[in-house]
Specification:
Elements (H helix, E strand, L loop, with lengths): L1 E2 L12 E6 L4 E8 L2 E7 L7 H11 L9 E6 L4 E4 L8 H8 L7 E7 L4 E7 L1 H10 L2 E6 L1 H11 L7 E7 L2 E8 L2 E9 L3 H14 L8 E6 L4 H8 L5 E4 L2 H4 L13 H8 L2
Parallel strand pairs: 2-5, 5-9, 10-13, 13-14
Antiparallel strand pairs: 1-4, 2-3, 3-4, 6-8, 7-8, 10-11, 11-12
Helix pairs in contact: 1-3, 4-8, 5-6
């Protein structure tokens, strides 16, 4: 467990612990002051469900044993974006299952993205939801991309060039771009290889008719074979930039924690 400040017991009941859950990773973090963030990765047991791993973590995790009352489940799950003016809550299950043929037994959740005039639909395992609600009085369910979208959307207003964003995390690549205060494109790709990532990015780049000399690609996160990837993507897109979290967030202590996902940095540090 790594901390970037001193814990204050008085803030414990007021703080909201974040439980980040992806397919193969689980971590806990909490902000208890302006510069106080504690981050604790959890060693998951393979072959066991996320709900079962989390249930066990309540017996093992230093952070969970503190007894927080409020929590955020920060979940990595396939997302369907719906324009906010077309969203009907009663139709969300049918709409999601029409687009994704898995997650039939899951609960379909939604979170409004007001800055981007969209609603994010995402699945939530029923057992995982039950574990959260059994252990916390106040639970919020949030897709991990929400703070990433909001943070990078701010970059879109700097300069006149079109910008495409590529976020690498959890053996996935999320590619998206904005048109003013709306999404222009969003898609997710399973990839662990830099060559595949370049193929997906160039395919989207061409699809969006972006200019390889004038427009910009902003690369974020855990990039596979990072140096090779950046060298080769610049052969096709001249203005390709790798975002440095320490520089992006004014060298905040949280950025010094090894392997902390960018989505958590954006959650705690983005203004």
């Amino acid at each position: 467990m790594q901390a970037t400040g001193n814990n204050n017991p008085k803030n414990m009941l007021q703080a909201r612990i974040t439980i980040r859950a992806s397919k193969n990773a689980l971590s806990f973090s909490v902000a208890e002051g302006e510069r106080q963030v504690t981050y604790e990765p959890y060693a998951m047991k393979s072959g066991v469900s996320m709900a079962a791993n989390l249930r066990q973590a309540f017996k093992d995790s230093d952070l969970l044993l503190r007894g927080y009352r409020k929590a955020r489940l920060f979940i990595d799950a396939p997302i369907l974006l719906v324009p906010i003016d077309e969203f009907e809550e009663k139709e969300k299950e049918a709409l999601y299952h029409y687009s994704f043929d898995e997650h039939e037994s899951d609960i379909i959740m939604h979170r409004v993205q007001p800055q981007l005039n969209a609603v994010a639909l995402f699945p939530l395992n029923k057992d995982l939801k039950m574990v959260m609600e059994d252990n916390f009085a106040d639970v919020r369910f949030t897709p991990i991309l929400q703070p990433v979208w909001n943070h990078l959307h701010q970059r879109n207003f700097v300069g006149l060039q079109k910008k495409l964003y590529a976020y690498f995390h959890d053996n996935k690549l999320e590619i998206f771009c904005f048109d003013k205060n709306r999404f222009k494109f969003f898609n997710s790709y399973a990839t662990t290889h830099a060559k595949d990532a370049i193929y997906f990015i160039l395919y989207v780049w061409k699809q969006l008719c972006m200019d390889q000399k004038k427009d910009e690609l902003h690369v974020v996160g855990d990039v596979p074979d990072k140096d090779w990837f950046m060298h080769n993507i610049k052969l096709y897109i001249q203005r390709a930039y790798l975002l440095n979290p320490a520089a992006e967030f004014n060298r905040a202590p949280l950025t010094e924690i090894k392997n902390i996902p960018f989505d958590l940095l954006a959650l705690y540090l983005s203004k």
